[in-house]
Design goal:
Blueprint lengths: L2 E5 L1 H10 L6 H10 L4 E5 L9 H10 L3 E6 L3 H10 L3 E4 L19 H13 L3 E6 L3 H9 L4 E5 L1 H4 L4 H20 L3 E5 L7 H5 L6 E4 L1 H10 L1 H17 L9
Parallel strand pairs: 1-2, 1-8, 2-3, 3-4, 4-5, 5-6, 6-7, 7-8
Helix pairs in contact: 2-3, 2-11, 10-11
């Protein structure tokens, strides 16, 4: 069954907009779990623009399901991850000028910096994932760096401007799943997925987990976090039921 990871970063974004103490992302994480979230994701950025060190520590002590820390490979952040010991760390690119993480980590280019971080995190008992684009050489490089999993960037599909472009991107995602499995990697998905577009991606066989943040947080403003998470899980199940049976063409 497809698992849902809920990214609670943008709850903290709303809090930081006023420099206040609410809404509390810890409370959001608890509500997401009560709605059925299988994991909670947060990104501790170098500039602490939303999630801060206090949040990270409290999430570790509060979250009962899997805790996934998105992070750069900067030494300060790596040190915090090794002290915090979340169940999973996902290595992502990080640029101060971006609104949110755009595009995947270039594992091929940064292999010499990435591989030692992967080794240190795994030695501490942390599962390690790479947030990468659906490109074969990047997937192969992730396997060579001994990542446990990859999270495939679904932004190409989410931002497609035509049906033909969306179909091409769905084909790329399907090929990336196969490539990841061929390299012995668990395959997750994330970026730009919403209640309107997630069905087609969930209908592709081979995913393990979806990580979705902004759309769920946005929906929670109107219906509450529990119901927002429940609704997304229903859509994932519906997409999963639409997957072709074994032996049928995709």
């Amino acid at each position: 069954m497809l698992r849902l990871g809920v990214n609670i970063d943008h709850v903290a974004t709303v809090r930081q907009a006023r420099g206040a103490d609410e809404p509390d992302p810890i409370w959001a994480a608890v509500e997401a779990e009560l709605g059925g979230a299988d994991s909670i994701t947060f990104h501790l950025r170098e500039d602490r623009r939303h999630i801060n060190d206090r949040d990270a520590l409290l999430l570790k002590h509060t979250v009962a399901c899997k805790l996934n820390m998105e992070m750069s490979v900067e030494p300060e952040i790596v040190k915090i991850a090794l002290e915090l010991k979340p169940e999973q760390c996902t290595l992502v690119p990080e640029r101060r000028e971006e609104l949110t993480t755009e595009g995947g980590l270039d594992v091929v280019r940064w292999r010499k910096r990435v591989a030692p971080v992967v080794r240190r995190l795994k030695a501490a008992g942390i599962e390690v994932s790479a947030f990468i684009e659906p490109i074969e050489v990047q997937i192969a490089a992730a396997a060579e760096c001994r990542f446990d999993a990859i999270e495939i960037w679904t932004g190409g599909y989410a931002h497609a401007r035509s049906e033909a472009a969306a179909t091409r991107e769905l084909d790329r995602l399907a090929s990336a799943i196969d490539c990841g499995h061929d390299h012995g990697l668990t395959v997750h998905a994330g970026h730009g997925l919403t209640y309107r577009n997630v069905h087609a991606v969930a209908a592709i066989p081979g995913w393990c987990e979806f990580n979705i943040g902004h759309s769920i947080v946005a929906r929670s403003v109107f219906v509450g976090m529990r119901d927002a998470v429940r609704e997304m899980k229903r859509l994932l199940r519906r997409g999963e039921r639409a997957q072709p049976a074994c032996g049928e063409p995709a």
